[in-house]
Amino acid sequence: MAFTFQINNDIKFKYNQDLLNKANQYRPTINYHSVNATSLGNLNKSTNSLGGYNIKKVADISELPKHSFTQDEKVILDFGDHYVGRFSMNIKKLGSPMDAPVFLKFKFAEMPVELAEDSANYRGWLSKSWIQEEYIHLDTLPTRLELPRRYSFRYLEITILGISSKWQVVFENPVVTTESSADLSKVSVPKLADSEITKIYAVGLKTLEGCMQDVFEDGPKRDQRLWLGDLRLQALANYATFKNTDLVKRCLYLFAAMPSSNGWLPADVFTKPTEIPDDTFLFDYSLFFVSILADFEKFSHEKVILNDLYDVAKKQINIALKQVSKQGELKLNDTYPVFVDWSNEFDKTTAGQAIMIYTLKQFIALARLVKDPETRFYKARLASLEEFTKQHLFDEKIGLFVSGNEREINVASQAWMVLAHVFNDQENQKLMQNTVHQLFPIKNIATPYMYHHVTQALFEANLTDEAVKLMKSYWGKMVQLGADTFWEAFNPEKPEYSPYGSSLLTSYCHAWSCTPVYLIEKYLLKNN
Amino acid sequence: MAFTFQINNDIKFKYNQDLLNKANQYRPTINYHSVNATSLGNLNKSTNSLGGYNIKKVADISELPKHSFTQDEKVILDFGDHYVGRFSMNIKKLGSPMDAPVFLKFKFAEMPVELAEDSANYRGWLSKSWIQEEYIHLDTLPTRLELPRRYSFRYLEITILGISSKWQVVFENPVVTTESSADLSKVSVPKLADSEITKIYAVGLKTLEGCMQDVFEDGPKRDQRLWLGDLRLQALANYATFKNTDLVKRCLYLFAAMPSSNGWLPADVFTKPTEIPDDTFLFDYSLFFVSILADFEKFSHEKVILNDLYDVAKKQINIALKQVSKQGELKLNDTYPVFVDWSNEFDKTTAGQAIMIYTLKQFIALARLVKDPETRFYKARLASLEEFTKQHLFDEKIGLFVSGNEREINVASQAWMVLAHVFNDQENQKLMQNTVHQLFPIKNIATPYMYHHVTQALFEANLTDEAVKLMKSYWGKMVQLGADTFWEAFNPEKPEYSPYGSSLLTSYCHAWSCTPVYLIEKYLLKNN
Known about the structure:
Order of helices and strands of chain A: HEEEEEHEEEEHEHHEEHHHHEEHHHHH
Oligomer: homodimer
Radius of gyration of chain A: 25 Å
């Protein structure tokens, strides 16, 4: 996430200290590993790489200490894969005594294209402060430089911005101390016959690992925080891989502990310097609290969590249902917008209606588990939602759902209606066949988040070949363009597209893109 | 100092651990004081200020926490006077939760003109790394920012380079924790009738205080190290003011402990990360070790130091005398150059000859004290040096000393010959009268170091009014142009001149400029 802009300074929050304490009981252990840089590289034009650049190896890392650097010289270190962690390196001098400080610039990059862009040219709306560049003066050498901040990167470009002409600097033993609450030893990586799918799985796993920190972060390079809608996908991917249920519990408690005074859950929360709810609210993100709780229950069967959090989930459903008419029609509201996707170029009414149904069904399953006497009421609301959907939102002639007053046909409506299982399996398959024929290739969608839902809808509609084809053409295409981890945004029509106008701000390891590990596990392993 | 460029990588040094240990026994106590910023200012064009800029007060510092800063905003803090120390400040945020780091630039300036220059434009030969700018990312607010490096400054410009548009930053309680081994409580500031001289004394005292650190530094902003020739003037100024004799002892031992294998003392030494002699050697600077020891003995009468260091002083004289012919003529040598002044636009032969005589006379006084049986030998060498000087270097007709094969007449030769007392007092007075008439106003000299020697020569020649006039027209002019401390370089003909082509690199608190405190004490107080 990170493409929604709300300021709601006046919102008051009701902190629940008991739930906050539980969130902190599940604070994860962070695992640290030291990884050495592997080679020295040059930035190289390459038409088959993202933005037209890759890094060409010019020497093994063992050559690094043999070179001494003078004014304006640069070196690019390649760590061989994407890592999240802290950087350290020995720096010494060669030549006359050190008669001045040395002034160094460090530019950390997830993708080579970032090294081709000058941060001075960035004029986007998102804060420049996210750019992973540091300017460091060192007064005495030799030293072990230990940069205190965490970075998300594979490449590091070091530039000598200021040095005396009487001596040179030498770099030795560059190391990233990686950080993650994911434990790779818990993962049994599936053996897959298809090498492309194998690669997609591996990159997805690396993506999720990088985003698993003190909470599930949306991206370790940028935003670095816990979003509710993203958490839903991260938790599912986590059940398929690392199986760190404590981290999911922590995140569920964090959201539950900090609703607004009217009961809305914030779309995202911060955990540093302390737990703080963001003043951003999204209709569907709030509802996904129900999903995450239901998915968690299904995976772990831990009733304590359900008992603690059922009321919060129910509150989200109740708030959302206020926007649903007696006839079963969801009315969208600008002050509590539905997200569905970054793009605001399509009508979201029907997708929102589907998400309401999707989460209400999950809620009813939970209500049954806790034997909520009001379960019948929710079933009745569900029935009217589904009834309205079938009667008013489906165009029989075209065989697709329509959305909004203009009866717009878009891919999001179809995908979410399939996921909500408003129709039976046969109808769903027909619907997705129509979607493929009439709406593919997908236009104007740049998020793996939306591509995930379309791909999953194909799987749910039992169109496995089409699902795999879409996965390969989307996530597989990122791999072809050089992805070590999956990106926050990718539009196959315009691979160089960044939502912020600069690769320097784009997160190239973004949690909501990791879902192939979940889809592969759920649909390609279990079913085969 | 800092305008000489030598690389002598092949030189070997003979460390004397015993003397190094003694140097470290005299390591000074550093005094710390907290000083708050006093006001907020704007950079303002002003024809009567250095480089055409001053800082105009716009608000009391109490206004600072009332303002919140957004993208690209700047603020200039004025600390009311020049300080050397570490900066700290509280930073908090106002508005929505902190959804991004904040990226700040800190530019520390001794003089307002530095704030008018963009460091990106600096292309000089001296390392950019000296520019007092830092770029800092802060991931969590509120925080107490404590910058780890020491700065020399009065002004601090803070720029918001990157911030989210959802919140703003607020700055509170900016403090410099000053550092100096000088103790102001030891100084009895003289009551002077002349307000201009009073001001010059105060600025000189502040300059020396800023340069007294773990050693006598040449400048706390730039170079930050101990130079032998500069130490001579700092020690004299210190005897007149702070009277910290331990710091002089430390510095004497440091030089004595690290001669080259052929006995030369380095022109400067480093003390971080450990004691390191620079690979730079200057004929006159080595000889000034003798001066410093003689001046110290005269001030303190501590015989232990003399006994420990006499041999090192004698070695310097012996090495130097090898360059003196039997007839008493000093032959300059490019591999062991004489400094005299930064300018290389004048012939230094006669000034070098005078420095040889000046230091040899001081050495003979020490030789008598230690009852060196070879004293007679040195007296004979002195006699021939003086004889040669009078016979060959003085132009009777013009009434001035000449220098080099071209018989060049320059101010350095006259000043140093007066300081060396080659002539009697009456002749010296005549010589300096001729100098004033024929060579004033001084041309093409930009160092307070050279101006010091000319001013002192006027005092020694009993031309007190001329000396005071020169002091006011030089140091007084710096005060008029806004000096809180005296500058490393100042050419009254071209006030904006920087030896490095940029005010950003110029040291505006430089030890060799502090000598008015010495001259005032020696010639205006004792004689009156």
